[in-house]
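User: quick one, sequence for these tokens?
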């Protein structure tokens, strides 16, 4: 075939290899494989340190294959600092237990590793040891049968949390063991300090990181752009709203969180502490070497559905319902006004002070803005937080 016929002259001129290569490429093109082999995939800029898998098209619960009896659920950690809407965010995830059939997320206590009985004799070393044991236990979670599930919960409560004077997590009361994802919120910047690890700590962290990856572990970091709003926010307001029993009590909480006097110097200290803490949280997330996603409080507040879709895609959680249903089940509400001039009684002083700092761009209105918080307006405009 190569010495006679229409191809013989071509073979004698250029040799066999180039012609064979062309023929192979033609065959691949015909089968559609060439595109898959030779296409260069350029990663797009995003908030993800690692690309997540998207199932494509409209995500619905039918794409889920986990029935709780086969395979392992994935696990995750939400890193936070404070006053970023993290409690609201976790309540949204937990609401999947009531709404979804196969895309349930189990929130394993809001901050199980950050609270303990201060009147106990527990030491810092014991607290740190309990945290390490809990993180390792998370990578060993067993949900295949009811017996294994309850045994794992008991081991965590009695063997890890109780000796460190930490509260029990009653997962079997509010979580389906067939949940697709098990996740907890944690101040990871306080739990891990990769820059100052001892050799033993470094080995432990590397071991945990490997196990975390093996269980399809993912990290989300809650962040807040509005440093100046955050510095003027009291963290107790959201819990007061949650625990209010009447409209009158809600109105009183809103009054207490509007037109508050804020010391600009103290606010600046708060901003600087938050910036440094945010950097530490980011370093921990990167050092874990797992897929991570930054969730912005402002995006959740003002572009809720798009942000939650990003979250669910990143976590590989199916849904076939309106994500606003999750918001409707949350007990957390927005406590303080959106505008700084309504939030801060001494806004002119606050504004003039920050105009000379690197954070001047975060001021949302001129310093001479006059506005008074209207309780009726705030009540009507109370957004779920």
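Assistant:
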């Amino acid at each position: 075939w190569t010495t006679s016929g229409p191809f013989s002259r071509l073979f004698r001129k250029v040799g066999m290899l180039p012609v064979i290569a062309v023929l192979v490429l033609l065959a691949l093109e015909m089968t559609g494989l060439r595109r898959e082999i030779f296409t260069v995939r350029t990663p797009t800029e995003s908030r993800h340190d690692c690309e997540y898998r998207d199932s494509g098209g409209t995500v619905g619960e039918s794409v889920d294959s986990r029935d709780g009896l086969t395979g392992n659920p994935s696990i995750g950690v939400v890193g936070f600092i404070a006053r970023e809407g993290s409690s609201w965010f976790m309540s949204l995830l937990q609401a999947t237990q009531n709404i979804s059939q196969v895309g349930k997320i189990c929130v394993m206590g809001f901050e199980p590793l950050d609270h303990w009985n201060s009147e106990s004799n527990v030491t810092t070393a014991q607290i740190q040891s309990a945290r390490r044991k809990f993180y390792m236990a998370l990578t060993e979670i067993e949900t295949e049968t009811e017996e294994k599930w309850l045994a794992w919960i008991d081991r965590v409560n009695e063997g890890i949390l109780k000796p460190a004077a930490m509260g029990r997590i009653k997962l079997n009361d509010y979580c389906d063991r067939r949940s697709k994802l098990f996740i907890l919120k944690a101040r990871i910047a306080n739990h891990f300090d990769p820059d100052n690890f001892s050799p033993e700590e470094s080995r432990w962290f590397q071991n945990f990181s490997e196990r975390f990856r093996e269980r399809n572990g993912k990290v989300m970091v809650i962040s807040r752009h509005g440093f100046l709003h955050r510095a003027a926010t009291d963290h107790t307001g959201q819990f007061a709203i949650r625990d209010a029993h009447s409209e009158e009590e809600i109105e009183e909480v809103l009054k207490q969180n509007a037109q508050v006097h804020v010391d600009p110097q103290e606010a600046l200290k708060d901003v600087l502490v938050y910036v440094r803490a945010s950097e530490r949280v980011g370093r921990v997330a990167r050092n874990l070497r797992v897929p991570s996603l930054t969730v912005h409080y402002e995006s959740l507040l003002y572009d809720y559905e798009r942000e939650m879709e990003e979250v669910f895609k990143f976590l590989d959680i199916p849904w076939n319902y309106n994500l606003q249903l999750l918001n409707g089940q949350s007990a957390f509400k927005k406590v303080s006004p959106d505008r700084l001039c309504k939030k801060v009684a001494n806004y002119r002083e606050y504004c003039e002070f920050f105009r000379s700092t690197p954070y001047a761009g975060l001021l949302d209105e001129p310093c001479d803005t006059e506005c008074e918080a209207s309780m009726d307006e705030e009540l009507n405009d109370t957004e779920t937080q």
